[in-house]
Amino acid sequence: MASAPITENPVDTNSGPTEENQATYQIRQFDLKVVRDAFVNCIQPDQTLLLHEYVRAYDELCIFVSSLGAIFDWAIKDLTHKLLILREHQRLDPLNYDSIQSMIAYEVKTDRIKTKDTTLILSSGKPLPNGCRTLLRLHRALAFISSFLSQMRMASDNESSAAIAWNAYSSTLGHFHSWPVRHTIHAAIKLTVPDRQTLVDKLLNKRNPDEVETISLDIIKACNVIETTTQELFQKHHLTRLP
To answer: Using CA atoms, how far apart are residues 135 and 149, in angstroms rounded to an integer?
Structure first.
């Protein structure tokens, strides 16, 4: 694919917008239906995965994580930074960054995947990271989100949400972290993850339990399709271990 002409300078994804978005996450109320709609709309009939819908779903998930308390601000900051990187690529080159498939094909063809960063320089003087590396981190996190929601949905009322979160983490993201990182995250989960009823209340947010059950199942199904398709793309192009 030919790159769309770039007529604007890249914005700095390390400053202003991140803080503004974090404030927005704290003000807005979480809506599970927005997550469902975005993930479902991400998947096109031909299995093309629309990047802007993928980002939109994660935006709403950031609101949910933000509602869990200030202790999760570090996670919000990291997620927001990655979403801003993908948005910036879409702003500069909407043709090649329209879908996950087109982004991967373009960055492979142009050898962008061979380096952590692109040659585009941000206003801060730092280079704009490549899209595939950024997506890979979000892709791994999506596996955790899907597993956590699935286990929460099937759990009994007296099960520990911290134990559910740890099980979901261990079977997904934990595979990519060193022992010290896993140990730190285990301690953080035990100390900070709210009880199951608090999490359920935040997921409900004025919706009835049956509706949330249906929406959650739709999210899990969509996430599984997105995760499988994205994983196949990364494996096909040998990108599963990008630094």
So the answer is: 21
